[in-house]
Amino acid sequence: MDVSTLPPQPGEDTWAFVDELKAPLWHHHDWTVRAAADGETSLAAGVQVIPEFPDPQGRLATAYADLDRFLAAGKVATGTGPFRIRTVQVEIGTEEAFRIEIEPESCRILAGDCEGIRRGLFHIEDLMLAAEGPLLPLGCSERTPFIRRRISRCFFGPIKRPPKLRDELMDEVNYYPDEYLNRLAHDGVNGLWLTVEFRDLCRTRFTPECGADAPQRLAKLRQTVDQCLRYGIHTYIFCIEPRAWEAADPTIQRYPEMAGADAYGKRKTFCPHSATSQAYLEEATRSIFAAVPGLGGLINITHGERPTTCLSTASAVGVGAVTCPVCSALEPWEILHASLGAMERGMHAVAPDAELVSWLYMPQPQGPVGYQLAPWVHDIPAHTPAGVILQFNFESGVTREFFGRELMGGDYWISTPGPSDRFRQVAATARAAGTPTSAKIQTGCSHEVASIPFVPVPSLLQRKFAAMRDLGVSHTMLCWYFGNYPGLMNRTAGRLSFEPFPEDEESLLLELARRDWGRHAAPAVEAWKLFAEGYANYPLTNLFQYYGPMHDGPVWPLLLRPEDAMLSPTWLLGSTTTHEPWPPSGDRVGECIHGAFSLAEAVELTGRIDEAWTRGAAILGELRNACANRPERLRDIDLAEALGIQFRSGRNILRFYELRERMLRLNSPERLQLLTELRAIVEDELRNGPRLVELCERDARLGFHSEAEGYKYFPAKIRWRMDQLQGVLDRDVPQLEAAIRRGERLFPEYTGQAAVGPRARCVQHENAATVFTTLALPDDLDWHEGPARWAFTRDETFVYLLVESTTRAAVTLKLEPRRLWPVTRHVVSCTPSEDCRAVETADAWRGALRISLVDFDRNGAGELAPVRIDVQQSAAGGGPQTWLPQHPQTHRLCLGNDNPADLGWLHFA
Ligand SMILES: [Zn+2]
């Protein structure tokens, strides 16, 4: 693909959604005048709001002003008229709970705190929206939250991570403009998190070198806290503390007792047990909370991401161990108890109402079923210090059956809503021990598809919150960097956090739809159900989230000519190591499904998503004319259509390569039919491109990925891809068609059918199994010489790699089991196992490795297709001795740095 013509990433000045979020929430209600029906009362003759609720800090000013603007947008006079809305203080018990009493001439909103009044004011707005007029239903109703904190994050705020390393506390930008906060407050969000580090914010007596810019950062943090509290939103700082030390850190030169074990190269873990460590952690948290009155709390990843305490050398799935001499004598929970206890004391000494949330970030495993969490993890919920809330990923470890196989997902799933068994277990233990529990979820969207503001699937959120309610969860962190845009999904989470809990999915969807879609609620509900039904087929493997085509398929070139081009990370624009842009993803589609699905299965699943989504989007699309005066609903219709184009594109990409690979392996005229189907896919994508451009041009949210801090797709890049597609139709298709008509093989050097490049031969041997057992290595094989001599043989069940080595170093086979799939590694060593045999001689060792043929590619005739391999041996005092020269690619999470060009062929004789 030609990346030299790629258009540049749009600048931040094109992020038009920022201004949209600042615009007034209410401008014009599309209401038709009607008289009150039975059981209703009308506010049309004017409303006087009588704010009796005591509010010395003026926290409710924004809510009263909002109601005024809401009524004005419905042409209802305020400050005069017969209808009275009173806010009244009563003892109601729970923060944010409220009661509403509506009579013919008045409405009373009763609550025990300002936030209950705020919720009540918003609730009567919702009732009028559902009635499509200034009308309220007579009678009483109550709402009480069981999820007390619903913590989200700014959609466009800096992530304080590479490559941009933007820090929101160090710039002058207001990331929390009033009407944005007003939207979030209406959605039920009452917390926002932002990232900090102690070394930036805290100059303690132990760390005098730190906090050079702390005054500036703390000032911005105070400003943020105050702004947000005006909308009932608490600010939480998020951090991963206490950080492991750099070996040269002056603090641990002065206080060596604060350092634990050597780990992670030139670093040392933070040992929390010494009096010095305790005093440091207390002082750090105390200093922040003393400097920022009203700060809501601190969310800390206590274990699982980045090195922190001495416990971080032991992984949640039992790999590694605690090596600190002090901590290794303790139970793992005691290590966290020590660090959290000190942080809790420091915080609560100056901010008794602030909350410390300890997040155990344990997303493993991200692949097939098998791992279990280490037993010590399950000790933590019952041994969390008093005053600390335990947070756990709601879906990590979630399992589901696909095609008769059980698969397990890592973090961040909406399509498979969870909870995982491990979350249930952790929450149950915490509840029994009296430890409050927070569920880390994704609300608007997740790594499944994060290049849009949200995926409209409220039914799937209902399943999450129903389980939280059963499990006694009291807090939820609603999102990572993405999945937080105001609108349907946030509001669903807000609604589902309150009692009375909707009786069933149908009543939830109708309630949500009546508020937004009024008389068109029924078709909206029907569309949402289809969206959820389709989305539930999202392939349950994190690789599909991280590298799959659902985020930005409309800018993936379609390569009819094989290029063996890698897939790029979905959450990044640029490489964190080279700061170069990642190229558009190529044809190595196995990288996003391997270990979980075949290409045909991925085509099937994305096909189900596409089909259900298309039907749902069509139902919403029919409401365009009816909603011509409801710009917010037109945005919802556009969003559903854009997502439909993305999903169609994802399906098309997978199907394209499925067909291409089949065509390249045939040598018959049937290839013309496959080529026709390939051309039809390109044409389908060419039809969808211009429509997506149109949608992007009127909605700047489309294509934006909050973690990438930029656009995964945008009009110029979609057009770039359309040029590429046109080139395929104009040049590649005719050339391949001519080659097929001439009866030529297509790209035989790519399929291994041509004898090109380095090759090894795998000779079938009737005694191969005996060779594996006896290690009496036959000479009549294709032996390759080197420090380790190696050859392949096979029978009907296994391929065997035979090795003879003069050094004790293990030999690794890198095997690409089929074209476009990542390599797997198989080790032959002196340590035998079921599939590895070895025998040592005086000055050498011999070994054999067997690999089942089940996963190997077979061509149309059922014969084993050639595969690509490298054979490597680690050499003393140097890099590995490899069969072929190595040219590693930029490292990719879960996929490493293998370069498919560094492989040679293994032919099966
Ligand atoms: Zn330690």
Structure summarized in a few sentences:
The protein has 909 residues and is of the alpha/beta class. The strands form seven sheets. Strands 24, 25, 26, 27, 28, 29, 30, 31, 32 and 33 form a ten-stranded mixed β-sheet that branches. The protein has an eight-stranded parallel β-barrel with strand order 8-9-10-14-15-16-19-20. The chain has a six-stranded mixed β-sheet with strand order 2-3-5-4-7-21. The longest helix has 35 residues, at 631-665.
Would you write up a description of this structure?
The structure is a single chain. It is globular, with a radius of gyration of 30 Å. It has 909 residues and is α/β, with parallel strands linked by helices. Helix 8 runs parallel beside helix 9, helix 13 (505-517) packs across helix 14 (521-535) and helix 18 (670-698) runs antiparallel to helix 19. The protein contains 21 helices and 33 strands. Residues 260, 271, 310, 324, 326-327 line the site of zinc ion.
Structural class, by secondary structure, is: alpha/beta
Q: In percent, how much strand structure appears in the residues? A: 15-25%
- Strand tally, please? 33
**What low-confidence regions span 5 or more consecutive residues with pLDDT below 50?**
none
Q: How large, in whole angstroms, is the Cα Rg?
A: 30 Å
Distance between the termini: 35 Å
How helical, in percent, are the residues? 25-40%
Bound molecules: zinc ion
Mean pLDDT over the residues: 95
**Cα shape:** globular
Number of helices: 21
Main sheet?
A: 10 strands, mixed
